[in-house]
Amino acid sequence: MAMKTQAVMLKARELGKGIPAFNCPYVEMVKPIAEAIKDENSVALIEVARVEWEKFYSQSPERIAEEFHKYKSEGHTFLHLDHIPVIDEDYKEVDYMDLISRAIKAGFQSVMIDGSRLSLDENIRTTAEAAAMAHEADIPIEAELGAVMGHENKEMPPYEEIFASHMGFTKLDEAEKFVKESSCNWLSVAVGNIHGAVADAVRDQKKPEARIDVDHVADLYKVCGIPLVLHGGSGIRHESVLEAIKAGITKINVGTEVRQCYEQALRERSGDVEYAREKVYLRTRDYIKNYMYNTDLADQIC
Ligand code: 13P
After folding, report:
1. Comparing C-alpha atoms, which of 168, 228, 227 is closest to residue 195?
2. In a 10 Å sphere around its CB, with 0-12 CB exposed, 13-18 middle and 19+ buried, how is residue 253 labelled?
3. Is residue 85 lining ligand 1, measured as CB closer than 6 Å?
4. For atom 5 of ligand 1, which residue has the closest CA?
């Protein structure tokens, strides 16, 4: 029987490996990313977030699912629905249950609900509501607690200030309560990571190099006991990521660095999609091989 995403995550945790989840803000990125994962004989998630069909070019969850089903490889690629915010980056309310239900119908194998802009109790309530729907469909659900900054349409404080003051970091007591009461399967945490910017004026900028409070990851993993997720995976100091995986991170979201590689290539050869796809393919293979050390991971996992 085909392996399910939850089993992949738990096996990766047991092996001490991180599973990358590659964002697709352009429909055309699905093919080269899927091929790169397969050609490295690796295992990874392919994901799309609401902001990527609202503000970029992924069109809809159904369109990404259609593309995924064309290029997927059994035992290598898994389709995940990234950030479905309850309150979005422009502080507007979102019909999150409808979007998650559409994604489940389209064949997504895991989903995310993001109630991180709500109070703790409201985050627990909405996550539990979405979790019931995901579990009914027999798929796992990721939630977020703490503030992983960068998506909002406003200027972020300097990175060093965020790190030094632990601004927005996920709190241990809240995380323990959240996991017990929300039924989420994986938890996205704020531990020094920041998202690449998505607002129009700044989305081309290079991200500041982030690092991770690895002791805090270890403490969170101790109280949560479920796979933890690191958002904002682009441009984090390499040793930080490797240590964070040892400490409890299992899934790592990678968006900005592959998106910027695609966009840069389109600019270089005025809109040549095949050239840009080739660049994405090579970049994804390089990331899997030289950053995650995940070549041949499929042999160990599936
Ligand atoms: P980056 O764009 O910073 O890699 O973050 C991706 C992400 O976390 C998507 O959820």
Report:
1. 168
2. buried
3. no
4. 232
256 alpha carbon to ligand 1 midpoint, in Å?
6
Q: What is the pLDDT of residues 128-141, one digit of tens each?
A: 999 999 999 999 99
Q: What is the pTM (predicted TM-score) of this model?
A: 0.97
Atom number in ligand 1 closest to CA 148: 8
Show the tokens assigned to 105. Answer: 């119908």
CA of 1 to the centre of ligand 1 (A): 31
What pLDDT, on a 0 to 100 scale, did the predictor assign at position 1? 61
**Are 73 and 45 within 8 A, CB to CB?**
no
Tell me the HSE value of 107 on the side-chain side, using a 13 A CA sphere: 14
- Note the pLDDT tens digit of each residue in 23-81: 999 999 999 999 999 999 999 999 999 999 999 999 999 999 999 999 999 999 999 99
| Residue 82, CA distances (Å) to 4, 47, 127, 231 in order | 17, 6, 14, 10
Our answer on whether the CB atom of 248 is closer than 6 Å to any ligand 1 atom is no
Burial class (CB in 10 A: 0-12, 13-18, 19+), 249: buried
